[in-house]
Amino acid sequence: MTVTPMKRITLRVPSSVHHALTQLAAKRHVSLNTLALEALQRYIAQEKRRFPFKELSDVLVPAAQAQGLTEEEIQHQIKEMRRRLWQERYQDMVEASPQR
To answer: Which of 1, 6, 38, 59 is least enclosed by beta carbons within 10 angstroms?
Structure first.
């Protein structure tokens, strides 16, 4: 069995957040540390999958305009793409969450 080296961090949170986290951890029968670690791991995974819209638009907008698309058409396409990506990610998150 491989042991993963661990580092310690300290988080300061409002009492209300601590209370909510403690209740959630108890409900899930896990430690507060495990709950926080799982949340941080999900956040990291989500950030890695974040779609770089600013960088993409810097490249695609001039090309789309060269094709004769209006700014409104470009914005509509970007919004539609964003909606589809978030829907896919939300579905992945729901399907990956443990059933209780």
So the answer is: 1
Cα–Cα distance measured from residue 59 to residue 53, given in angstroms and rounded to the nearest whole number: 10
Block means of pLDDT (10 residues each) for the chain, 100 residues, are 87 94 95 94 81 71 81 81 79 64
Is residue 60 within 8 A of residue 73, CB to CB? The reply is no
Per DSSP, which regions of the chain are E strands?
none
Whole-angstrom distance, CA of residue 52 vs CA of residue 42: 18
30-47 burial code (b ≥16 CB/10 A, e <16): eeeeebbeeeeeeeeeee
**Whether the model pTM is above 0.85:** no
Running DSSP on this structure, what letter comes out for residue 3?
P
